[in-house]
Design a protein that fits this description.
The longest helix is centred in the last third of the chain and has 17 residues. 72% of the residues lie in helices and 0% in strands. Helix 3 packs across helix 5, helix 5 packs antiparallel against helix 6 and helix 6 packs antiparallel against helix 7. It has one domain: N-utilizing Substance Protein B Homolog, Chain A (Orthogonal Bundle), CATH 1.10.940. It is an all-alpha fold and 130 residues long. The protein is globular and about 40 Å long. The model has no long low-confidence stretch (mean pLDDT 85).
Length: 130
């Protein structure tokens, strides 16, 4: 959700950590989203990391996704792939990063999002491992 807002209005959300703090301050209280301080801090770290490294991350996803242009992917799939790619770049174990991303894709995407995210992130992980 945080990266959705950043993508929708990049000029207003050039700082991913700030966007995460605003999300938890203004949007999360009115929803069923609960997060402890550790989870909020990690969300800020991910959002800041994805925003600051987006060009590198998007290049990885483009290389890994041979049949889909990044711009044609659904916003959910694209941002889940960005989160998973960032985690893979920052030493989150391959299985953990991919499994978490697949679950996010299944929860917020289409019925094919889980398989799509799994396939692309597996390729991203292989590229990073080279």
């Amino acid at each position: 959700m945080i990266l959705f807002g950043v993508e929708a209005d990049p000029s207003a959300h050039s700082d991913g950590a700030k966007a995460a703090r605003e999300f938890f301050l203004h949007l999360a209280p009115g929803s069923d989203i609960e997060a402890d301080e550790e989870a909020r801090a990690y969300a800020e770290e991910i959002a800041a990391g994805v925003v600051s490294e987006q060009q590198k991350i998007d290049a990885l996803i483009r290389t890994a996704s041979t049949h889909w242009r990044l711009e044609r992917m659904s916003r959910v799939d694209r941002n889940v792939l960005r989160v998973g790619s960032w985690e893979l770049l920052h030493a989150v174990p391959r299985g953990v990063a991919i499994d978490e991303a697949v679950e996010l894709g299944k929860k917020f995407g289409t019925e094919s999002s889980g398989a799509f995210v799994n396939g692309v992130l597996s390729q991203v992980a292989d590229i990073i491992a080279r």
